[in-house]
């Protein structure tokens, strides 16, 4: 099928599950933020499963071809995994600058990073039981986690990133074994910290993806539209992913009006093309989405494009997110007719 459709990862969590006003009123949590949940801890797992059912239902209703769990169990895209690793002192967090330039509490790495137990495999298995469509799960990328941590153990950040990469690699293999068709690493800090990324980002990603037995993706973006409002005109780190052993590269083009000529420098990669602007809750028309996709089709063959939102949708109202997904699938149908 040409132009399959997918979320990047997250979908709006129900208001009965999480305090969405508090979520929007702070930086994305890097350490645990259990105060955001509205449901008592002893009922939370059942609530998570119910919210996952709702997220999958909306994706089915909108007609998406590739389904995620909406990341409904997560306070943020990264802390769900980053805070369960051995070597991280979650009781005494550190501090690091967020990509917005503001200080944010972060995991403090006080020992060697090890994975004591995974979280993604359980999420993948639960999702696999809810749909017969292709499923994608997401894991925070090792480079990004290394930039969102205080290093009190390793000789340098590069060594810490490689420690994260080994743990992520185990998580990736378990996710595929649990039924995932696609495993995506979220790496927004490849763009935010491009200088360090150019030094060792590909090395770290290569370690994290080593031996992956299924389709892999890397998502690289400019940050949540609800938090980061200004977009540069181009990626500061993107063509470098041509040298990474990853199958899909997920980017945003809608809000940033990205010059898609850069996609010529990713030969052989499937491009997960962000064509929904998440800075505006208004629902785009299918024609607007088609026009955004056509910009990329000057440089990428139709066979190498997956249509998606720019980034995770968790900060949007649910009705807005669902409406945007309907426009996405309607645009995909029109593009299939044309191509």
TrEMBL record:
<keyword id="KW-0808">Transferase</keyword>
<dbReference type="InterPro" id="IPR038071">
    <property type="entry name" value="UROD/MetE-like_sf"/>
</dbReference>
<keyword id="KW-0489">Methyltransferase</keyword>
<dbReference type="GO" id="GO:0009086">
    <property type="term" value="P:methionine biosynthetic process"/>
</dbReference>
<feature type="domain" description="Cobalamin-independent methionine synthase MetE C-terminal/archaeal">
    <location>
        <begin position="3"/>
        <end position="333"/>
    </location>
</feature>
<keyword id="KW-0479">Metal-binding</keyword>
<dbReference type="GO" id="GO:0032259">
    <property type="term" value="P:methylation"/>
</dbReference>
<keyword id="KW-0862">Zinc</keyword>
<dbReference type="GO" id="GO:0008270">
    <property type="term" value="F:zinc ion binding"/>
</dbReference>
<dbReference type="Pfam" id="PF01717">
    <property type="entry name" value="Meth_synt_2"/>
</dbReference>
<dbReference type="InterPro" id="IPR002629">
    <property type="entry name" value="Met_Synth_C/arc"/>
</dbReference>
<dbReference type="GO" id="GO:0003871">
    <property type="term" value="F:5-methyltetrahydropteroyltriglutamate-homocysteine S-methyltransferase activity"/>
</dbReference>
<protein>
    <submittedName>
        <fullName>5-methyltetrahydropteroyltriglutamate--homocysteine methyltransferase</fullName>
    </submittedName>
</protein>
């Amino acid at each position: 099928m040409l132009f399959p459709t997918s979320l990047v990862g997250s979908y709006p969590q129900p208001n009965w599950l999480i305090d969405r006003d508090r979520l929007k009123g702070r930086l994305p949590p890097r350490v645990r933020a259990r105060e955001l949940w509205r449901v008592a801890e002893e009922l939370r797992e059942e609530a998570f499963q119910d919210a996952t059912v709702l997220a999958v239902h909306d994706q089915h209703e909108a007609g998406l071809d590739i389904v995620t769990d909406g990341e409904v169990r997560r306070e943020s895209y990264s802390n769900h995994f980053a805070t369960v690793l051995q070597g991280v002192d979650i009781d005494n967090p550190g501090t690091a600058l967020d990509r917005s330039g503001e200080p944010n509490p972060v995991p403090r790495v006080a020992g060697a990073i090890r994975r004591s137990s995974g979280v993604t495999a359980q999420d993948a298995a639960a999702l696999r039981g809810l749909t017969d469509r292709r499923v994608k799960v997401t894991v925070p990328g090792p480079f990004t986690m290394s930039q969102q941590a205080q290093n009190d153990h390793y000789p340098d950040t590069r060594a810490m990133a490689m420690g994260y990469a080994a743990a992520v690699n185990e998580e990736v293999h378990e996710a595929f074994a649990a039924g995932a068709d696609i495993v995506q690493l979220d790496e927004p800090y490849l763009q935010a910290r491009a200088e360090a990324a150019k030094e060792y980002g590909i090395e770290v990603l290569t370690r994290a993806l080593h031996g992956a037995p299924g389709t892999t993706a890397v998502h690289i973006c400019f940050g949540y539209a609800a938090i980061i409002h200004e977009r540069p005109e181009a990626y500061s780190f993107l063509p470098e992913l041509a040298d990474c052993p990853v199958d899909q590269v997920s980017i945003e083009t809608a809000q940033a009006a990205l010059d898609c000529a850069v996609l010529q420098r990713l030969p052989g990669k499937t491009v997960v093309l962000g064509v929904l602007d998440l800075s505006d809750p208004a629902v785009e028309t299918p024609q607007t989405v088609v026009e955004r996709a056509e910009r990329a089709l000057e440089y990428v063959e139709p066979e190498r494009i997956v249509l998606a939102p720019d980034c995770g949708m968790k900060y949007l109202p649910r009705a807005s997110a669902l409406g945007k997904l309907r426009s996405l699938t309607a645009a995909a149908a029109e593009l299939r007719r044309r191509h």
